[in-house]
Amino acid sequence: MSPALPDGEPVPADGSLPEWVAGPTERAFGVYVHVPFCTVRCGYCDFNTYTSAELGGGASQASYAATALREVGLARDVLDRSGVPSRPVSTVFFGGGTPTVLPADDLAAILGGVRDAWGLAPGVEVTTEANPDSVTPESLRTLAAAGFTRVSFGMQSAVPHVLATLDRTHDPRRIPDVVAWARDAGLDVSLDLIYGTPGESLDDWRASLDTVVATGVDHVSAYALVVEPGTKMFAQVRRGELPLPTEDDQAAKYELADTALTAAGLDWYEVSNWARGGSTGGHACRHNLAYWRGDDWWGVGPGAHSYVGGPTAASADGAVPASGHAGVRWWNVKHPRRYATMLEAGTSPAAGRELLTHDEAVLERVMLQVRLDEGLDLAALEPDGRRAVAGLVADGLLDGRAAVGGRALLTLRGRLLADAVVRDLTV
Amino acid sequence: MPPIPSAAGAARIKPAATPPELLRNFCIIAHIDHGKSTLADRMLQLTGVVDARAARAQYLDRMDIERERGITIKSQAVRMPWAVAPAGDPAAAEVPYALNMIDTPGHVDFTYEVSRSLAACEGAVLLVDAAQGIEAQTLANLYLALENDLTIIPVLNKIDLPAAQPEKYAEELAGLIGGDPEDCLRVSGKTGAGVEDLLNRIVELVPPPVGDADAPARAMIFDSVYDTYRGVVTYVRVVDGNLNPRERIAMMSTKATHELLEIGVISPEPVPTKGLGVGEVGYLITGVKDVRQSKVGDTVTNAGKPAAEALGGYSDPKPMVFSGLYPIDGTDYPVLRDALDKLKLNDAALNYEPETSVALGFGFRVGFLGLLHLEIIRERLEREFDLDLISTAPNVVYEVALEDKSVVTVTNPSEFPGGKIGEVREPVVRATILAPSEFIGAIMELSQSKRGELQGMDYLSEDRVELRYMLPMAEIVFDFFDQLKSRTRGYASLDYERVGDQVADLVKVDILLQGETVDAFSAIVHKDKAYAYGVMMTGKLRELIPRQQFEVPIQAAVGARVIARETIRAIRKDVLAKCYGGDITRKRKLLEKQKEGKKRMKTIGRVDVPQEAFIAALSSDAGGGKGDAKDAKKK
């Protein structure tokens, strides 16, 4: 099942934030809405999601929009009480689970609640994830009309036997159609891929990439499959029914993806993301950029995380404050029924929180920003970390030209070893 | 009722006032599990020294480790009263005797201590398991006893066992020491059968001690034990004169003098006495805190009226096997240092000095008498001081003559001199192997592959054979015993003693990671075995060292010449694909954990190696000696 929530300290019942988050800020504000439902559970998935069979009574899909709207109301109230200035929402992202198992009208209603609470910024980006088999031309038009601007399809692969191993139910031949419907509805489209599935050959992967490129989408995410403990696939691997994907195979596939996507005009802008024009070309996912840049975001829904009051990439001196507070992150209870009950009782559904220390904030900043095509401001590093830069350039993991210009920017090889780079930069 | 002396009799055998002709000093020579301690317990009960209910099993073995393994490390001496009716006249009054039973260590590592214990006796009970026959180590101690002119009383133990073959092994013993198989006593320490007869036989056959009561005092130290409350307790056998409470005594090897705070006998707890006279065995307490001030084999005399000449046979214990001991947690280094300091108080043979290893950090190079000694010390450090330790493969001491004729003593392979070398001398042992004759071929093959030279072979009985070999000690320390055991299905027993040294064609094999020598893996091996060692160790490290961000060559080299090579391919992927809002905390914690792990790694050049990898490489079969010692004492 989904990974355990982190250990943290308790959150006040009314959801109040520490008083130091109060005061003016330049940070943007985004809202994530988690929809914890799927029609089937895929064998590799460890997300916080439930099929109707798993969920039982008490937390129905039908009442979910109303419950989520309660949390939106609470969020507005908490931020106001805590002295965080109200800002129009820059980005909204519906993820899951499968948001599109909810009727498009429900998604529109939740978005409406967000608009009512804070207003939407001009040029707001509103994304939903979707399964290729859970949309129709009509539902996509409804979403666009409600204010959605972007859809991200969980395509995973164009190869039937790979999809079967992943327990994905959609027909890969449907992909060009759903992309066309979404574009016709005026939505920006992204396709998600998974590589390194047991049994997937290099040719299989190449076929998936070719299919994606042929659709002409402006954004692609490609993720190495991770066999998470507790999933059905983990058990299959342990029993020897499926081979464990090797990291060498995944590395080769990553390089193949980068070559194919770059050739198609999709520029790498984050470890697992490519878009026309990179992070600033108008097709990157701005909501995700906000995570990596350290903006404020509120996560609505069971198991969702929120983060407020951190230092951002845009901070005046680029550095994490040496003392004092460096952001608060909290996470909601995982189970939809408990989540709903708490909100109905008028209490915060948060299960725990952490007040980030200076060192933790530095590590997060490095780990998140170094993933981006804009790189990390070297000024944000501690002296020990700066000393490691030359060696990483020499090893071909950091771009030398960018380093001279004051930024830590991963090379292709460096992207595959990003965690090692982060450890070196934060000694 | 067993014949325990009456009150009148007991008065004649009071300590410090027992005529030598009423004393009998003896020891028991036996293989590790042939039942010596059980027999000793039975004697303590029969002589009334302990009653059956109070008797702890194996009373004389004090330390936990000894009790668990059923082996004895430190010898002790117990005084037991015993009464015998004069032969031929059952009506005559019984004659009381004081029997001193001196417990001897059974293992070859402690040969010197054994020899000193034997020197304190006039007789020895040769105890052999009636189901197994004599073993090589017993044979070695029997030779020592004969060299000390001890009277030997052959005894077959465990005759209660269904598998006992007393006739067969009585023949074997008679063949070894002469005499009639019928003279071989048959006892069971477990049931007590035959033990009274044995005590009578001891009185009958073991000669009383002889000494000059009027000469200046001379007493030989045969054991020396550190006690937390009393300081060092020294066990002595008085040869000439007498020792008395409160007088000043002198150690003849060091000329150091001490006041005799307490003198007494063990029966079975220490009992202070008015002194010790000729032939008597007992203990001394002077308040010294370190067994090095009271050395086994040294002669104790009266400081005011010293003897002119010390008793013979004294020598300083010399370590034969060296190993690096390192705490797995580097912060435990001071604990290890204190622990060694403490053990040293009770172990004159233990010596050590600080050593630093690139791979293992701070530790000590420790010298041991042999592999069992090493294993015992290591286990006591881990058990009594709660330390987790890693030990490097044990090695012997080499004498390396350089071209300029100067000689370097090498106790650590990584200090083996480079450049031009004149010759290298290595210690040689005489090994005695006893085994069923069907394994002769296998033993010869093994010994030959270990550079052994056959010195002789004798049949002990129709189907048991004794083979004598000269072998480089380094081969024994490596894996000889393990292999001997596996090739003889566990039936062979081995004993060895150092007999000198020889010139040999030895080289140092270094193991290099990315061109940097990993000191803990340097080994001195015969030229013909260098390649095999190199291939084995590079292969093992390739499996154990995690992939790095760059390719890492692992080489084995003799001097500048690379003899084996493996490569750890560079890691290609080390990144979490997804890192969105709900992943950040988990991901950060994962990185923090990895950073902690990285801090615990040892860096060789640029290569990060988890200490576990070094430990695994050192502790598996190639580590050598560890397995030997274990088997040797379990047998």
Automatic annotation (TrEMBL), chain A:
Q: Which Pfam families match?
A: Radical_SAM
Q: Which GO terms describe its cellular component?
A: cytoplasm
Q: Which GO terms describe its molecular function?
A: 4 iron, 4 sulfur cluster binding; coproporphyrinogen oxidase activity; metal ion binding
Which InterPro entries does UniProt cross-reference here?
Answer: Aldolase_TIM, Coproporphyrinogen-III_oxidase, Elp3/MiaA/NifB-like_rSAM, HemW-like, rSAM, rSAM_sf
GO terms in the biological process aspect are: porphyrin-containing compound biosynthetic process
Subcellular location per the Swiss-Prot or TrEMBL entry:
Cytoplasm
Write out the function statement from the record: Probably acts as a heme chaperone, transferring heme to an unknown acceptor. Binds one molecule of heme per monomer, possibly covalently. Binds 1 [4Fe-4S] cluster. The cluster is coordinated with 3 cysteines and an exchangeable S-adenosyl-L-methionine.
Q: Which family does it belong to?
A: Belongs to the anaerobic coproporphyrinogen-III oxidase family. HemW subfamily.
What name is this protein filed under? Heme chaperone HemW
Organism equals Luteimicrobium subarcticum
Automatic annotation (TrEMBL), chain B:
Spell out the reaction equation it catalyses.
GTP + H2O = GDP + phosphate + H(+)
Which locations, inside or outside the cell, does it occupy?
Cell membrane
Q: What is its main location?
A: membrane
What Gene3D superfamilies would the database entry show?
3.30.70.240, Elongation factor 4, C-terminal domain, Elongation Factor G (Translational Gtpase), domain 3, P-loop containing nucleotide triphosphate hydrolases, Translation factors
Which CDD domains does the entry mention? EF4_II (cd03699), EF4_III (cd16260), LepA (cd01890), lepA_C (cd03709)
Top-rank lineage group of the source organism: Bacteria
> GO CC terms for this protein?
plasma membrane
Q: Does the keyword Membrane apply?
A: yes
Topological type in the membrane: Peripheral membrane protein
Q: Biological process GO terms, please?
A: positive regulation of translation
> Which family would the database say this protein is a member of?
Belongs to the GTP-binding elongation factor family. LepA subfamily. Belongs to the TRAFAC class translation factor GTPase superfamily. Classic translation factor GTPase family. LepA subfamily.
Q: Which SUPFAM superfamilies match?
A: EF-G C-terminal domain-like (SSF54980), P-loop containing nucleoside triphosphate hydrolases (SSF52540), Translation proteins (SSF50447)
Q: Name one Pfam family in it.
A: GTP_EFTU
- Role: Required for accurate and efficient protein synthesis under certain stress conditions. May act as a fidelity factor of the translation reaction, by catalyzing a one-codon backward translocation of tRNAs on improperly translocated ribosomes. Back-translocation proceeds from a post-translocation (POST) complex to a pre-translocation (PRE) complex, thus giving elongation factor G a second chance to translocate the tRNAs correctly. Binds to ribosomes in a GTP-dependent manner.
Q: Where is the Tr-type G domain?
A: 21-210
Keywords from UniProt, A to Z, are: Cell membrane, GTP-binding, Hydrolase, Membrane, Nucleotide-binding, Protein biosynthesis
Which positions in this protein are listed as binding GTP?
A: 33-38, 157-160
EC number(s)? 3.6.5.n1
**Name of this chain's protein:** Elongation factor 4
One of the record's GO molecular function terms: translation elongation factor activity
